[in-house]
Design goal:
With 656 residues, the protein is α+β, with helices and mostly antiparallel strands. The chain has five domains: 167 residues, 2-Layer Sandwich (Beta-Lactamase), CATH 3.30.450; 100 residues, 2-Layer Sandwich (Beta-Lactamase); 98 residues, PAS domain (Beta-Lactamase), CATH 3.30.450.20; 77 residues, Helix Hairpins, CATH 1.10.287; 147 residues, Heat Shock Protein 90 (2-Layer Sandwich), CATH 3.30.565.10. The protein is built from 21 helices and 23 strands. The longest helix has 52 residues. It is elongated and about 175 Å long.
Length: 656
Amino acid sequence: MEEDRKEGGCNLTLELCQSLFMAMPMGFGYLRILEDPSGRPVDLEYVQCNQAFADICSRNLSQIVGRRCTDVFPEVAADLLPRWLDLFPRICREGKPHAMEYYCAGVQRWLTMNAFSIEERCVAVFLSDRSSQRSRQAKEEESKELLELEVASRTMRLEQANQALREEVEQRERIDRELQLFRTLVDQSNDALLIVEPESARILDVNLRTCNLLGVARQDLLRLRAFDLDPALVDMDGWARIVARLRSDGRRLRETRLRHKDGSLVPVEISARYVRGTPHDYVVSLARDARERIQQEEEYRTVLRTAMDGFAIVDSLGRFLDVNEAYCKLLGYSREELLSMNLKQVELDPPDGCRRTDLGCSTDQGYERFESLHRTRDGSSRWLEVSVTHLKRPRGRFFMFFRDVTERRRTDQELDNKVRELARSNAALEQFAYAASHDLQEPIRTINSFVQLLARKCSGLLDEASREYMRHITESAVWMKTLVDDLLEFGRVDATMRSYVPIDCGLIVKQVTHSISDSIRETGAHIVVRRLPIVSGDPVQIHQLFLNLIANALKFRSDRLPEIVVSARRQGTEYVFSVQDNGIGIEKQFLERIFVLFQRLHPRGRYPGTGIGLPLCKRIVESHGGRIWAESVPGEGSTFRFTLPSHSLTPVEEVQ
């Protein structure tokens, strides 16, 4: 009530001052000095003035207030404004009032002005019309001037008092607004705020979040003391110990439970700070509701306890701080036994020679995964895959997950042994096949030679059927030789470990077309070779690859003149080559079969060949790290595509 009366009194006084200000017979104006960016005064702004001021200046109030001098009195700007811009800043700097009398041509009057500084770059002026008095006698004029000066002085003192009162009211209103804004922001905080008096533990203020957290109204909380809410403090002695630590440490973090209105205890995390103020000190505490975090931690512990993988929390020295049941089962220890042990006691054989229990890599990188050998309680050992995560908070803690990979490592070892055994077997088999194919050539040549000799020597003695038998024997011997030669070539792809060199594929195709130029002329084929890249590989094998594909396009031609296009394009990290023809095409169901050894789609009498050409192409491409496939439309033609790694940055441009 007393504050309301004071506030009402202030409003009445302010209203009275404003009425007095407007009713003053003497003109009063409040001016602000305007400066350019360099700080030089350039103009004046009429912040406020009374009616008498407007009457003296022959203007309406609305024409003056809030406007510049150059806009209100353009006729005097050139004469008087430079004098004022020199005088008013000096008054502001020195803080001394100044009086002057001058003739204003704009209003055609003699005026008296008393100016004094109110605040930085602002002056107040009393303005009086002296025109009528200047015609009176000097003595009366002097007396009146003295009287006016006295009135001006008293008015100035009154205005200064009123100004001070206005400033006090404005400051109070500003403080009230700031406090209201602060209160709004504090009430919207997610944390509970308590301001406590250090000496008595009396709660001085709380925010809305505190009331909601504890279910207690603000006015009821302000009747309590800190240890009434926090049972951990017990009494005033407990509070005094907390305050003493806060004075020395400045800030403390702790977890506690605050008493709710219904008697339950709410778990919170409290950050308390001792604030030294004038004239009193305060303890400011922020309390954050920890129920959701505790529930999440409990759910997290439940997940870890029931997880299939082992889990442990260790410190920077490798000591177990917590373990789950799965880890206990892995090693055969009880939880109590492991919590009394160190990771060094169960880890046997670090794979890289440095003790994993140092956890140096995990500290630097935050996360690491490795496999390590661990000792079980019965003396046996198991291989575990370990994932380590370094926690920044709390510092020096590590989350470790363990997965038993003993069987997998055993299986991998057995698989590696079988792969090595299979590789040795394949190598021996390839060597045997190569040797057998090579050794078959001599008896085939012998059979072929003796059949030819027998045919020449006994040609007159044989009847037609016998000569037909001899012809079949000769063709079979030639076919067998061709088949053995192709088998040798097929086995030579992997048997010959040649070093790869840069290969100009355009030059290779040019050599291929030159070697089969007779077939090209006989068939009337038109071959287009677009620009091909440089790759890394075996020149002999790449030559054989293009030769087989182009020869196949000529062999399996249709009734039309053969048209063959050889091109390439870059796709990511590899080149895709294409050999396209307009031949007889291939049925869709046979597109994969054609790359199988000895798989022929046509009788040997219709199209010659052993069925090794395309499998040989596949083996060459795969030995170079690529893949090969075919696309075809029966009756329209086929396109054979294969990829080779782009070991070179040679551009591929389609040019004919």
